[in-house]
Structure formats: C-alpha cells, structure tokens
Recover the amino acids of this structure.
C-alpha cells in the first residue's frame, strides 16, 4: 500500500513537473522582490552639481528671476528658408506609407507649408501669451513659464503644479492644458481645484541652457527643478509629467517625499522587477488572475508578441541617442527638413501606432501643422536637438536599470493615467511595484504618448480626479 501511494505521488509530480517549476520560479521571484523592496525603500540623496562652463565660482550664484521673451528676427527666418530651399528628397517606395519612417511625399507637403504659409512671428506671439522667465541654477540658465489663475475663486486654495515635458516635446505641449487648470470656469469646466502652473524646459531643451559637462541626468534635472520651486517660494507642491518628465518627477518624489504632496504621471518607468514582468507577459494571457491583470490590460498587452515587435520597431532612435547622440545630431542641427522628419515621425507613431498605415502618418488627425512646426521651431532656433538627445546617454548610457533610483520605490501619493496608445502599457499591478501609495489608476479612453498635447481635457480631468482623492484623505 505504501509503495502504491508513493507511485501515485511520483506519477503526479512527473505529470505536473512544469507546473511545479513555474510555481517554484514565481515563489523565488516573490521572495527576491520582497528582499529588494526592503533594501530599496530609502530616500534619494539630493546632492549638488555644477553644469556651467569651467570651475564653479567661489562667489554665490545669482538667484534672481528674470523675465524672458521669445523673439525672432528676419535673419533667423531667412536662414531657415534658405536651408529649406536646399532640401533634397528621396522618392518613397511604392505603397510604403509610414512603415519605413516619415513618408517623403507627405514631408514635401509639410515642408511646403513650413516654407510658404507657416507664420513663425505669429507663433512667437502665441508662445509669449504666458509669462516666461529665466534663472541661474547650478551654472545654467533655466527657462520656465509660470501661469497664475487670472481670478481664483474665493475659498479655493491655489495649488502649485510643476509640469515637466519629455523628448521630442517641449514646454509648448502644455499650452492647451494650462487654461483648463488655471481658469477652468472660463472654459466651461466645473473643477474644484485651481492651479498655478510652472512648466520648465529640461536643461538642454529649448530655451534652457545645455550642460557644459557630462552627467546631467534625470536626478540632476529633478534637483534643479526642486531648487526652482524653492526659489519661487514653494515649500510644498504637486508634480506631473510624461516621458522624461515622468522620470524626473519620480526622482523628485524619491528625493523630496515631504515637499512633494502628490505625483501624477502619464507614463510609468519600471526598470526593476523585469523578470517577474516577463513571466507575467508569458503567462498573463492565460492566467490573468494570477498577475492581477484586468480585462483592459489583457487587451492592451496581448498577444505579447505585439509588445516585443513594438519595442523593436520603435526603439532604434533610443539606442542611437543613448550611445552616439552627437553624430546624428550634427545632421539634424544643420538640416531643418531632416529635423522635422526625425521629430514629427514620433508624433505620428507615438500618438497611435496604427497611423503608420496612413499616407500622411495621421499627423493632422490630432494636431495642426502650426502646433507641430512650433515645437520643431523651438528645437531649431535654440539649436537644442543635440543636447536634448544627450539626455538619453546620460540616463541610459550605462544600461537600463543600473542607477540607484531605478530600484527605489515612490512613497508619496501617486496617480497614473494609462493612455491606451502609450508606447508600453503599464497595468496597475506593475505600477504598484513602483508607487507604494498609488491612489488613482485610470484606463484612459483614448490617447497616446503626448497626452497634454493630444488630449488636454482628458488629462486635466484625471489630474482633477487625483486631487479630489487627495483632498478627501
């Protein structure tokens, strides 16, 4: 009898060995994750830096805040037009659409509009409708806009909100959402929260001076923006970001858990726990309950093959910019048509990956050419494409997940707006690995990578929802 029982047990184990192996792997992953959580729950050191030319001077840095205006000249426009007139185009393959990158037939249309109809002087006036400023921080002239509510209602406390852009965007991405946050009533919105919005340009982007030394990464940018908020008189504030802005905001929350009262992101960087995420991608389609996946998560993540294909298809630029940014940057910095193709291609496929099946890349479905070219012009007139690309090398040049903050958690109240056409969908269960106090997670009905630029109303509503949750706490 005893031998028979042992035979049955042995046969059961043999028939189900693969199940037991998976179970053992999951237990090991859970245990390792638990150990890592205990090791990485500290606070990110603030530190200090100097990114200006030469050695840091002995005299204190000038902390004055100076008004700034975007300006242009006839010479600047003439130079642009001359370079556009010298552009050479290669005929696209037949029926290529946007599968090989920016379709040169549609590029000719964009360039023709840029050369003959786009009014940069008018766009400069639009850029200047919000107050611009500059201030020296760690040796760099940091540019930002600061928009206060025109008429804050009585009894409502105005909340300071720092909003940080990414690549290949700029502070201009926020121009449509700013009035929804600072003056909702005038735009037919019945929001309970009123904000004053501060939108800085990341060092090396747009009108913020580029670092003169190696090493200015997201942690350095986070520290610079903390100093900016402190210089503006804010000891407590809220932060919001997407793309690099998301990572910079995460670093600020890790660095300043008592000053940051809430963090809202529309993109989630998770570089730790990669193995458990891989397991969930391999098995989650069949066992979603095992990984706490919702139905919407399954729709956006599976089949997993499409995720890996998307990463392969869309990440070539990242490899270049994380290794040799100056090489391709030299070409883009000297050719406005090349710069437009390089950047606008991202505004096509990152807004909706299905747009690559369209002859025009779907660019004018969500944006106007004036808006898109204004963003291009911010890169062109400031010659900031190379330093903006260097930000990838400073953050990823040593590999993904190698920096201390990559493994650290965020403990301040957090919210994630998960737009369905983001480059990589982040389920709530993944987000909770990073954000230990995730108060709000929203499956957004539509939208992609450039949320504030593309869907300002949806993003504003989610920020308001998050603030409402915090208010009740």
């Amino acid at each position: 009898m005893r031998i028979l029982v042992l035979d049955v047990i042995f046969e059961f184990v043999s028939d189900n060995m693969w199940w037991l192996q998976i179970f053992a792997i999951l237990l090991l992953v859970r245990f390792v994750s638990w150990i890592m959580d205990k090791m990485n729950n500290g606070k990110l050191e603030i530190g200090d830096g100097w990114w200006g030319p030469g050695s840091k001077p002995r005299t204190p840095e000038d902390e004055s805040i100076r008004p700034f205006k975007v300006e242009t000249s006839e010479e600047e426009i003439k130079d642009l037009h001359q370079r556009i007139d010298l552009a050479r185009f290669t005929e696209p393959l037949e029926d290529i659409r946007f599968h090989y990158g920016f379709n040169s037939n549609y590029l000719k249309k964009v360039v023709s509009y840029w050369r003959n109809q786009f009014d940069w002087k008018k766009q400069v006036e639009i850029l200047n409708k919000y107050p611009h400023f500059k201030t020296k921080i760690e040796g760099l002239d940091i540019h930002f806009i600061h928009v206060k509510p025109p008429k804050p209602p009585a009894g409502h406390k105005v909340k300071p909100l720092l909003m940080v852009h990414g690549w290949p965007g700029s502070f201009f991405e926020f121009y449509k959402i700013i009035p929804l946050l600072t003056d909702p009533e005038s735009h037919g919105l019945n929001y309970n929260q009123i904000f004053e919005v501060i939108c800085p340009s990341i060092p090396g982007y747009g009108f913020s001076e580029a670092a003169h030394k190696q090493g200015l990464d997201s942690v350095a940018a986070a520290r610079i923006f903390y100093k900016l908020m402190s210089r503006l008189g804010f000891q407590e504030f809220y932060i919001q970001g997407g793309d690099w802005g998301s990572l910079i905001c995460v670093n600020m929350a890790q660095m300043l858990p008592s000053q940051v009262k809430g963090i809202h992101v529309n993109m989630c960087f998770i570089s730790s726990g990669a193995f458990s995420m891989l397991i969930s991608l391999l098995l989650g389609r069949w066992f979603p309950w095992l990984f706490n996946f919702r139905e919407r998560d399954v729709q956006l993540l599976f089949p997993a093959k499409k995720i890996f294909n998307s990463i392969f298809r869309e990440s070539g630029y990242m490899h270049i910019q994380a290794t040799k940014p100056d090489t391709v940057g030299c070409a883009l910095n000297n050719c406005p048509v090349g710069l437009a193709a390089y950047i606008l291609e991202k505004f096509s496929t990152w807004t909706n990956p299905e747009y690559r099946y369209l002859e025009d890349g779907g660019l004018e479905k969500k944006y106007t050419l004036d808006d898109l070219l204004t963003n291009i012009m911010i890169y062109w007139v400031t010659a900031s494409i190379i330093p903006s690309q260097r930000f990838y090398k400073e953050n990823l040049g040593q590999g993904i997940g190698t920096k201390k903050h990559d493994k650290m958690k965020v403990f301040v109240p957090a919210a994630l707006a998960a737009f369905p056409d983001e480059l990589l969908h982040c389920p709530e269960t993944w987000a909770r690995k990073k954000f230990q106090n995730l108060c709000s997670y929203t499956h957004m009905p539509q939208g992609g990578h450039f949320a504030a630029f593309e869907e300002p109303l949806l993003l504003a509503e989610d920020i308001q929802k998050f603030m409402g949750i915090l208010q009740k706490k």
Remarks:
- The longest helix spans residues 17-39.
- Strands lie at 65-68, 132-137, 140-147, 158-164, 194-200, 237-241, 260-265, 414-418, 438-443.
- The two ends are 62 Å apart (CA to CA).
